[in-house]
Specification:
With 450 residues, the chain is an alpha+beta fold. It has 12 helices and 16 strands.
C-alpha cells in the first residue's frame, strides 16, 4: 500500500509538474509575467523568488502535481500595475493564449516521447513475434497462419518485438484489409486482417485472442539430466534445446512432454542444440518408470529422465540517438490512436464505460509497475502522460481543451465569447468532470470489491 501511494505521488508529481512547465515556458516566450510556479499544492513548505520577474518557485505540502499562476487582470483580488498590464495573460492575442494553454498537454505528449526514447536507447530484451498454431476456425486459422511464421510487419509498421506487434494491432483496430507480412522459412508472404470488430474493452479478451492468434514463445530446454537415464545414455546435456522430435518442429514444452508419454518405449529422434548453438541429432528411447503425477500419486509413465523448461525466444532491441527518438515518437502516436479509439468505442457504446479508471486503479498500477523495475514504471509513466495530455485536450470547459474551444470560437467570431456564455460553459464543464470522476471512482471500487 505504501509503495503504491509513493509511486502514485511520484507519478503525479512528475507528470503534472511537467504539464505546468509547458504552460510556464510558453507563457514566458509570449511575454506573460509568471507570478508563481509551485511543485505540489497546499501550504508552501519552501519558496524562493528567482529571475527578472521574481517568480516565486515553491515546494508545497501535497506532492500531487503543481500549478502556475500568471498575471491576469480578471483574477479576483489580483492588483495589476498599469505599467505591467501589457504582460497580463488576458491582454495577449488569442493566438498567444491558445499557445500557452495548449503547451501543457503538448508537454505531456513530449514527455512520453522522451520516456519511450530513453527505453529504446538503453535497450531491452523482447520476445520475438513468432506465430504458433492459431485457434481453430478463427480469422488467423482461415488465413492459414502456421507455427513458426515470423512477423515482419503489420500495416505500415516494421515489427521487431512482440510489444511492437501488440501496439500495431491496437493502432489499426476498426480497419479492414490490414496487411500482415510473415516470413515462413525464408519466404515472405502477406495476409490481410479485418480488425473492424475488435473491441478494446475490459470485458473482452485480448486482440490476439479475438483474432485467434497464438504466439510461440520458445523451444523446450532440457536440464537436470539424471545419471544413467535414457537422456544421459543418448548424450543429451544440460541446456540442450529441443528443435524437433521425429521431424515435428517448434513443439511447446507440454507438447514435447505429451509426445514422449504417447510414444511409450518407442525410440524418438530428437534434434537438439547446445548452448554454443551447435545442432546434432540424438536417438533416445523412453523407459517406463514410476513418477509423481503432481498430485502425490505414483503412476507408471514413459520418461527420458530430464526436466523440461522453456528457452525464451528473445531478441535484444537497442537503438541509436535518432532511431530511438523516432521509436519514442512512433510508440506515442500508437498510444494516442489507441486511446482515441477506446474513447470513441465508449462514447458509441461499443465498449463499456467500466474501462474508465480513476486514481485508485492508477495508484495500484503505479505500485505494481514500480516493483517490476524502472523500465516498466517508466513505460507506465509514459502511458499515463499521454492519457493526461489527451484528457486535457477534451473540449470540456474547465479543462485546457475547453479553453482552446473558446479561443477557436473567438478566432472564428473575431471577438471573445460573452462572459455569461463562458461562465455557463464552466458550470457545464464542472458537472461533466464531476460525473466522469464519480464514474471512474465507482469503477475503481468495483474492481477492489471484485
Amino acid at each position: 500500500m505504501v509503495t503504491a501511494l509513493l509511486a502514485f505521488a511520484v507519478a503525479l508529481g512528475i507528470l503534472i509538474t511537467f504539464h505546468e512547465l509547458g504552460h510556464y515556458l510558453v507563457a514566458r516566450l509570449c511575454g506573460v509575467k509568471v507570478l508563481t510556479f509551485s511543485f505540489g499544492f497546499g501550504p508552501k513548505l519552501f519558496s524562493k523568488r528567482l529571475g527578472r520577474d521574481k517568480t516565486e518557485w515553491c515546494i508545497s505540502a501535497l506532492p500531487l502535481g503543481g500549478y502556475v499562476s500568471m498575471l491576469d487582470e480578471r483574477q479576483e483580488g489580483m492588483v495589476v500595475d498599469p505599467a505591467e498590464a501589457h504582460r497580463a495573460f488576458n491582454r495577449q492575442s488569442v493566438y498567444k493564449r491558445f499557445a500557452i494553454v495548449a503547451a501543457g498537454p503538448i508537454a505531456n505528449i513530449l514527455l512520453a516521447i522522451i520516456f519511450y526514447a530513453i527505453m529504446a536507447w538503453s535497450g531491452q530484451p523482447e520476445i520475438r513475434p513468432v506465430m504458433d498454431t492459431p485457434v481453430a476456425q478463427s480469422q488467423a486459422a482461415q488465413l492459414q497462419i502456421q507455427r513458426l511464421d515470423q512477423v515482419v510487419s503489420f500495416g505500415d509498421k516494421k515489427i521487431e518485438g512482440l510489444e511492437d506487434f501488440n501496439w500495431a494491432i491496437l493502432e489499426h483496430i476498426g480497419e479492414s484489409n490490414v496487411p500482415l507480412v510473415l516470413d515462413r522459412g525464408g519466404t515472405r508472404f502477406t495476409v490481410d486482417f479485418d480488425l473492424r470488430d475488435i473491441k478494446i474493452d475490459e470485458d473482452s479478451t485480448s486482440p490476439f485472442a479475438q483474432l485467434g492468434i497464438n504466439l510461440w514463445y520458445g523451444y523446450p530446454v532440457l536440464f537436470n539430466i539424471q545419471k544413467g537415464s535414457p537422456a544421459a545414455l543418448a548424450g543429451i546435456k544440460d541446456g540442450d534445446v529441443v528443435l524437433s522430435a521425429d521431424g515435428r518442429y517448434g513443439l511447446s514444452v507440454q507438447e514435447l512432454v505429451n509426445y514422449i508419454k504417447d510414444k511409450g518405449e518407442t525410440s524418438i529422434r530428437l534434434v537438439v542444440q547446445n548452448e554454443e548453438g551447435q545442432a546434432r541429432e540424438v536417438i533416445v528411447r523412453p523407459e517406463v518408470r514410476a513418477v509423481d503425477d503432481g498430485k502425490g500419486n505414483q503412476v507408471e509413465r514413459p520418461v527420458i529422465g530430464v526436466n523440461v523448461g522453456i528457452k525464451p525466444n528473445l531478441i535484444w532491441l537497442s537503438k541509436g540517438p535518432v532511431d530511438g527518438l523516432m521509436a519514442g515518437v512512433d510508440r506515442t502516436i500508437s498510444i494516442t490512436k489507441t486511446t482515441y479509439k477506446a474513447v470513441v468505442q465508449m462514447i458509441t457504446g461499443e465498449a463499456s464505460t467500466k474501462n474508465l479508471t480513476g486514481p485508485v486503479t492508477i495508484a495500484d498500477y503505479a505500485g505494481k509497475t514500480a516493483q517490476m523495475g524502472w523500465r516498466v514504471y517508466l513505460s507506465f509513466l509514459a502511458m499515463i502522460s499521454v492519457s493526461l495530455g489527451l484528457l486535457n485536450l477534451l473540449p470540456i470547459p474547465l479543462l485546457d481543451g475547453g479553453h482552446l474551444l473558446y479561443y477557436l470560437v473567438e478566432i472564428l467570431r473575431g471577438r471573445p465569447l460573452p462572459e455569461w456564455a463562458m461562465q455557463a460553459g464552466q458550470k457545464v464543464g464542472l458537472l461533466i468532470v464531476l460525473a466522469l470522476g464519480a464514474l471512474a471512482l465507482s469503477n475503481d471500487f468495483i474492481r477492489l470489491i471484485q
